[in-house]
From TrEMBL, chains A, B:
SMART domains: CBS. This is Chloride channel protein. It holds the Pfam family CBS. The keyword Ion transport applies. It comes from Cyprinus carpio (Common carp). Keywords: Antiport, ATP-binding, CBS domain, Chloride, Endosome, Ion transport, Membrane, Nucleotide-binding, Repeat, Transmembrane, Transmembrane helix, Transport. It is a multi-pass membrane protein. Its main location: membrane. The chain crosses the membrane at residues 77-99, 175-197, 218-240, 246-262, 274-298, 351-375, 387-406, 466-489, 510-533. It comes from the Eukaryota. Belongs to the chloride channel (TC 2.A.49) family. GO terms for molecular function: antiporter activity; ATP binding; voltage-gated chloride channel activity. It is found in: Endosome membrane; Membrane.
Length: 753, 753
């Protein structure tokens, strides 16, 4: 399934739980239920929901913590043991994430397999057996007809008692009913318990990894519901890729497990390193491709990916792959769903069709992104998006109705792919292998059937209206025609061997086309090639695969710069600072900083000389998330920076707990007290919440350098000075707005801080 | 050869051209000859040799250049075409690098193969045929004895005319003589023409990529000599890995090709991006592993590796692999030297020996690094290092003497490995395959021979004294005993099939041990696994391979934190800011900045009010490579930063070309002129060389953040301010010295700026 579904899984983004989660990102909308695990005691150094973290501060905090533990460890044995356990906790956490994600992925595979079969019939020996297991246990199964055994009853057989003829309608009805039930359950569960469980999850995870906070997005309810609905959605026959959801599931596991380790619970930056590794784990279990997973995390998802994270991801992906292999959901002792080998070496001239397929894939990928975004925008802005349940049910109904009649569309797409790609053996019962074909069909028509099947399959779910489906089916058929062009010029009826070769050739081209499309949609290159050869063992084909993915990326990039994930991030207005593209405009820090020339001057605090009341008034009058502290209003020489949240909490705390604090009490940011009259009320000392090393740039600093600093250091804000005088401030949001403006987009599309 | 040789190739570091290049890093020592290509017109914005570049400045320069081209392109068609060609020049450059490196690598492979055979005999049909080609052309070759044909004469046959008996001594003599001749030629060439062609090259390339300048290190003479000596050294039978030298060769190609593109010739940062890609190309052609190469560059060599470079590396590695495949040096239409498949799936319990082998490999790797560094230090500090030519000849002599008698040590290590790893086929003439074994040896003794052979082989060259060799041989034999333990508990003489399995088992363990050792020496993880499965096609073994390499890395890291490359970088005192390890000490910027409290105050320039004479005196009195510019000596408010080199050049230029400039002329760093008396001589305006946006930190900024900024932004220096007043400066060298001090090492070991 992965390949197919990766291509179309993005559809799910706008799809499973829909309207309810995209349009309403406000925290108030996420039910309290899912916040339980993520709630931390409000206090200094934490962040509001839907805000961006300060990487530098978080990393400093972690280093302080580490130093403290190291120092203590010199004095007592207990502390030493604690320090050692702390040092290993990262690896332990990785181990646990790998185990948990691997086990979940194995469970999902097994459950989805069973429920997919449940749509067709039930096992009399025990309803918990799937079709294959049911017939394994049977003594009456012959090798030729592995699929048929008396214990396995279709619904028609069970209810009417006959297995031939018109009862097929009954089977069809049951099939559609089950599919609708599964889909309905999935949508209802998501809506009721975990709106965040919707969609692919990768755009949000990418944003979270870049330093954004969405509480509950990786919570336990999301995990539970996402796991269940993934099984339901896959079983209902909807065409969705497991890799996005599995990355989300793995990240949820990681986030939940982080709560058992102080080091990671308390530190947003460290937690993000773990999440980076978890996204590698997700891909590792989705495809059985551990190295591909690591590269996926590096190339596609992660924002900050130091070598240490690389090694940890590698370890976690290894454990997860190993766990999955031990569970052995596919019963073949392999990590992967289908193990294909292209045994024939390739010729130089073959590069031409491969590159052509790359071009097609790139075009198709770019078109897909465009259409997907246009559709999402439509749903967001019109009434279309108001009926998510109905929408899902309609799509499921259409898919199920269309899928049942043809054998190839009915099988799960992983089965279909192995059917298409596996070499024909003598014991193979596949109809695609000429010699067991019972209908006297020619290879040509068999291929045509397969092509039709594929067309319908791929068309079914990805896109939501009949027109859209039709267009998709047409395009796909056209492309498959191109891909299978080799068949038509070859003499078809020579002998068996030739048929096999033809099939191999056609499936090879189809495979390259799928990969190129995937490359065009996601703009992955290295990771895609690695995943593909981990998936198929096609080591011989590295060079052509590289050529195809690279071409696809070039073509797609030429049409639009954004991958599907970035397009969705932008659609949702997340504050994501893209690291791929350089900022190339010749603007200076002075052009971007606030206040603008016409605005009132910057709101600053002075290090001494302000009263509690004055500070509180400043807080009430402004909405800034932080204030610079200067020596005096006249000199504007910078002392430090204080965050609004810290300031509010500290002042409240002082008012409540510190004796004698009144509105006229002085607020001091200095370490030493200035001389004060003995009759004055005690001062509120806030030196401890003052950041004495805020980042500064000068007014002349080109924005390209500022953007670079923000990206590389993960800043949240930066102060602008000239000749030692504080002049303004630049926040991440200012930068994103400026970038949007420079790219002629609406700067107001950036919604969050 | 790669596996073996990678393990021991580091030896070459201290080895091929030696003393002459490590101890004397001073520019004066590198002959003028090799500087031709690297000479740029001295001018503003260039760097001195053995200095560190400023990444931020270089990248700004490139963006300015890009903007200028884009702006011009709107006005004329020619400029538009130029702009398009400029945009594609990066990819074109990658294409050229791939083609050139692939061609060179192919040539090296072919030449080395021929010259290795030349040591044993010559082809009568034409001396330019190697043994294999000679016998291919012959009609008298039977399939069973492919190796023997009348056209191929050993030296003894040619000179004495008989082929049996005691003439073996003559063959042995010729073998040794050729080996000595090759080795002598190699050393002489390096000494005479390109001292920089010595050693592996990877530590220097790593340093260059981090922003250091070593002129001539990647010049055309280095390229020519390195290519020739690589062939000679490999042919002489010395145990050296091709991958280090090939990375160096690819980087030379890249550097030379950069000179044809203004964009890269003029910009040190852009050139380093190209070099990162080139090091991927080097590994790609060394192992035929393009993806492994990209990951090697990412994990091991590169300092700054944005996604754009990832894609370009990927493309260049692809082209290089493709070129190599087209040249087809191994005559098997594959990219790799040996294509091995472990067909048998592995069992869970097998993980235990694999992990044990990982531990052994890690221990051995750490020991190897330690011994290698100790030896290099000894050679550097004692008279031992004064006789490089003799040293090389002695090692070659010993290797050749020991290698000749045993068939397995005589064959090149790539042949040996394929001999060991390939499955036994019916047509296989290898003695290791039981059924064609003409001596009635049992499988056990065959394995013993192989083990002996391996022991001798690996012992031969890596280390330079007999004692060392002995120890190495002992350790290796012990380890091989452990590794082949499985053989001894199995019943050996059951039947043929069993023998094959045993060999597969033993070679599997040996393979894992080699990989773990390599992991222990270089601390590669992901890249190593990818290289290995690109090399062998052992896709089934991803999980155990990952487990072994990860274990090996852990064990080796526990013993010492540095890989062999980093250890050599430190040994040579290069200014390399390691990105792997976090700086964890609680020092502040104020503890590291210059001037220290007892020192005289910081030498600064004022933005106006200084005369040419004063500035020149300041330059003469100090050796700093740059000066901060402040508003006035009293306020110490920072205006900007000016580099010594730029200042010197500008003042000289003004003195020479600007009329009326005398010693009392004012030097102005302001944009607008201050009021001056009409009688005053014309001022020298240096506003254009002033960097108005120097990086600043405050005195309170923790050093961990400062280190992070230096690493991530590639800074060269950073100014320290407090409340708007300039207090000091921190340079990269200060940071490296501070880090050395904190790690209880000699801070004076950091030699360069």
């Amino acid at each position: 399934s992965p390949i197919f579904l990766l291509v179309s899984h993005e559809s799910v983004l706008c799809f499973v739980p829909l309207g309810g989660c995209k349009a309403d990102w406000r925290p108030s909308n996420s039910p309290k239920l899912i916040d339980l695990l993520d709630d931390t005691v409000p206090g200094i150094g934490t962040y509001e929901d839907f805000n961006t973290i300060d990487w530098v501060r978080e990393k400093s905090k972690d280093r302080d913590r580490h130093r403290e533990i190291t120092n203590k460890s010199k004095h007592s044995t207990v502390a030493l043991l604690f320090s050692i356990s702390d040092a290993f906790s990262g690896w332990l956490l990785m181990l646990l994430i790998g185990l948990m994600s691997g086990a979940l992925a194995g469970g999902i595979d097994i459950a989805a397999h069973w429920m997919t079969d449940l749509k067709e019939g039930v096992c009399l020996n025990g309803f918990w057996f799937n079709h294959e297991h049911c017939c394994w246990a049977s003594n009456e199964t012959t090798f030729q007809e592995r699929d048929k055994c008396p214990q396995w009853k279709t619904w028609a057989e069970l209810m009417v008692g006959v297995s031939e003829g018109s009862v097929n309608v009954l089977n069809h009805f049951m099939y559609v009913s089950w599919a609708l039930l599964f889909a309905f359950l999935a949508v209802i569960l998501v809506r009721a318990f975990a709106p965040y469980a919707c969609g692919s999850g990768i755009p949000e995870i990418k944003t979270i990894l870049s330093g954004f906070i969405i509480r509950g997005y990786l919570g336990k309810w999301t995990l539970i519901i996402k796991t269940i609905t993934l099984v339901l959605a896959v079983s209902s026959g909807l065409s969705l890729g497991k890799e996005g959801p599995l990355v989300h599931v793995a990240c949820c596991c990681a986030n939940i497990l982080c709560h058992f380790f102080t080091k990671y619970r308390r530190n947003e930056a460290k937690r993000r390193e773990v999440l980076s590794a978890a996204s590698a784990v997700g891909v590792s279990v989705a495809f059985g491709a551990p190295i591909g997973g690591v590269l996926f995390s590096l190339e596609e998802v992660s924002y900050y990916f130091p070598l240490k994270t690389l090694w940890r991801s590698f370890f976690a992906a290894l454990v997860a792959a190993f766990t999955l292999r031990s569970i052995n959901p596919f019963g073949n002792s392999r990590l992967v769903l289908f193990y294909v080998e292209f045994h024939t070496p390739w010729h130089l001239l073959e590069l031409i069709p491969f590159v052509l397929l790359g071009i097609f894939g790139g075009l198709w990928g770019a078109f897909f992104i465009h259409a997907n975004i246009a559709w999402c925008r439509l749903r967001k802005n019109t009434r279309l998006g108001h009926y998510p349940v109905i929408e899902v049910l309609v799509v499921t109904l259409l898919t199920a109705l269309l899928a049942f009649p043809i054998e190839y569309t009915r099988m799960s797409s992983s089965e279909l792919i192995s059917e298409l790609f596996n070499d024909c053996g003598l014991l193979d019962s596949s109809k695609l292998c000429g010699y067991t074909s019972n209908s006297g069909s020619t290879s040509g028509s068999v291929n045509a059937t397969a092509a039709n099947g594929l067309g319908a399959r791929l068309a079914g779910p990805g896109l939501y209206t009949a027109m859209w489906q039709l267009a998709l089916a047409l395009v796909f058929k056209m492309l498959i025609t191109v891909a299978t062009f080799g068949i038509k010029v070859t003499d078809l009826d020579v002998f068996l061997k030739a048929k096999q070769n033809i099939r191999a050739q056609a499936s090879k081209h189809f495979f390259f086309f799928l990969i190129s499309t995937l490359g065009g949609v996601t703009r992955m290159t290295v990771s895609l090639v690695v995943i593909m050869f981990e998936l198929t063992g096609g080591l011989e084909y590295i060079v052509p695969l590289m050529a195809a993915t690279m071409t696809s990326k070039w073509v797609a990039d030429a049409l639009s710069r954004e991958s599907i994930y970035e397009a969705h991030i932008r659609l949702n207005g997340y504050p994501f600072l893209e690291a791929k593209e350089e900022f190339r405009h010749k603007t200076l820090a002075t052009d971007v900083m606030r206040p603008r020339q016409s605005d009132p001057p910057l709101s600053v605090l002075t290090q001494s000389g302000m009263s509690v009341e004055e500070v509180e008034r400043l807080i009430a009058d402004t909405t800034y998330s932080g204030f610079p502290v200067v020596i005096s209003q006249q000199s504007q020489r910078l002392v430090g920076f204080v965050l609004r949240r810290d300031l509010v909490i500290s002042l409240e705390n002082a008012r409540r707990h510190q004796e004698g604090v009144v509105s006229v009490s002085a607020v001091l940011f200095t370490e030493c007290d200035p001389p004060a009259s003995p009759s004055a009320p005690p001062a509120v000392k806030l030196h401890n919440i003052l950041d004495l090393s805020p980042f500064t740039v000068t007014v002349h600093t080109p924005m390209e350098i500022v953007v670079d600093i923000f990206r590389k250091l993960g800043l949240r804000q930066c102060l602008v000075i000239q000749n030692g005088r504080l002049l303004g401030i630049i926040t991440k949001k200012d930068i994103l707005k400026h970038m949007a403006q420079m790219a002629n987009r609406d700067p107001e599309s950036i919604l969050f801080n």
